[in-house]
Amino acid sequence: MPGDRSDRTFDMARTYQRKRSTTGPTEQPVTHDVNLESAALLYEMAALQPTPRSQFGYKRAAKAIVYLPVPVSDLVSAGTLREVPFVGPSSERIIKELVAEGKSATVQAAIVKAGSKGTAVVARRAYRENFLSHFTMQQALAAPMASGVVSRADYRGDFQMHSTWSDGGEPLSAMIKGARELGHSCLGITDHSYGLPIARGMPMEQAAKQWAEIDRLNAKHRGEFRVFKGIEANILADGALDLQPQEAALFEFIVASPHSALRKTEDQTPRMITAVKTPGVAILGHPRGRVFNTRPGVSADWDAVFEVAARLQVAIELDGNWHRQDIDYILAARALEAGCLFALDSDAHSIGELRFSEYALAHARLAGIPAERVINCWSDDRLEQWMKSHHQRRRRKSS
Ligand SMILES: [Zn+2]
Predict the structure, then answer these.
(1) More confident residue, 349 or 26
(2) How far apart are the CA of 168 and the centre of ligand 1, in A?
(3) What is the average pLDDT value for the chain, to the nearest integer?
(4) What is the CA(213)–ligand 1 centre distance, in A?
């Protein structure tokens, strides 16, 4: 596709709205994200390099493009592409080819020359569906949407994040400070449970100490900020959690997420449905477990999973970590259709990553999700009731 595509990028959200209003949620990606496509080509070029040093150069350039605040096509037109940090002459050539031709002859030639390594690089394109660059994410946040569609102003707090109680980089008090600086008025802390030692999962004795800290912090911030006591439980191969039911009952809410069997092509619908049905589970975290350019995540009949989640009022997470963007706006539109609730979370492991909630919000807006369906927009009282209802499912079931 030749010519200037920056206008199309700017128009992305409006195009999406037009499509929705006439045909309902589309099955086709409607973004034309030239920054993401440029970065993807640079990542492909990186994967084809013979040395870690040359790989590093392309990766750094790709990352800089992903986080650009403007479309690369504007920089190409203005002749300022090389002013972007880490974009050298080779990266510049690839991006210019993409902007002019819609593809890069340089990358294509490198793929052909690399033989089976090139084939593997091409196969990874399936692991990049419906990701948003920073620029496109910002466009989705700013574009006018139908009334009621969730916006930044509706967003009160983030319900998946990690602190030094597990594999996060910063103490809980610092994460609270970071969230308050973003204008949030509550958060759910979800350090990993003990079944995931690789993520420094928290033994129950540690959890008890964390709750004492949360109680202290909640007393200190009373009336201004509320911390909810959560946990990110790991979904095992059979759909059970890595927590005993009596342990799960002690947290205010549970985010259940898959961290294994994320490259398997076999159907895992029963695993995901079992997790959703587990008493105490309030959020299905990063449901697919996909990672940009790396792995596809869980294969499942998502409509069947969404149907159960909608019935039980378990929120489907849109995980905003840039590498995850899980689930994306196309799948989220199907979950919306199924009647699901949603959690738009950062999955932050540091203060800086709290901003990843913006990617979740952008995907939610592109899917047309109303604020009413987004738990992050609810009052503390409503959140508390909803969390308790998931534990009451436990009592009803066992009595
Ligand atoms: Zn996780």
Answers:
(1) 349
(2) 12
(3) 90
(4) 23
Q: How far is the CA of 101 from the centre of ligand 1 (A)?
A: 39
Residue written as tokens 């090139």? 118
Tokens linked to 372: 């009413």
Closest CA to 292 of 9, 87, 18, 62: 62
SS3 label, residue 70: coil
What pLDDT is attached to residue 394? 63
Distance 289 CA to ligand 1 centre (A): 8
- According to the model, what pLDDT value does residue 31 have? 55
Q: Distance between the two ends of the chain, CA-based, in angstroms?
A: 63
Q: Which residues surround ligand 1, an ion (CB under 5 A)?
A: 257
Distance 129 CA to ligand 1 centre (A): 20
Q: What pLDDT score was predicted for residue 12?
A: 40
Distance 259 CA to ligand 1 centre (A): 6
Q: How many whole angstroms from 319 Cα to the centroid of ligand 1?
A: 9
Q: Which DSSP state fits 314?
A: P
Residue 16 has pLDDT above 80, yes or no: no
Instruction: Return d(Cα 13, Cα 33) in angstroms, integer.
Output: 11
Q: Do residues 103 and 40 make contact, with C-beta atoms less than 8 angstroms apart?
A: no
CB 248 within 8 A of CB 255: no
Residue 277 Cα to ligand 1 middle (Å) = 19
Provide mean pLDDT across the span 157-177.
Answer: 95
pLDDT at 397: 52
pLDDT at 396: 59
Q: Residue 27 and residue 330: Cα distance in Å, rounded?
A: 6
Q: Using the mean position of ligand 1's atoms as its centre, give its distance from the Cα of residue 190 in Å.
A: 9
Distance 262 CA to ligand 1 centre (A): 12
Question: How many angstroms is it from 109 CA to the middle of ligand 1?
Answer: 38
| Dihedral, CA of residue 111, residue 113, residue 119 and residue 120, to nearest 10 | -80
Distance of CA 185 to the CA centre of its chain: 21
Phi-psi group of 224: left, alpha or beta (phi > 0 → left; psi -120 to 50 → alpha; rest → beta): alpha
Site of tokens 């992903």: 66
Q: What is the pLDDT of residue 199?
A: 77
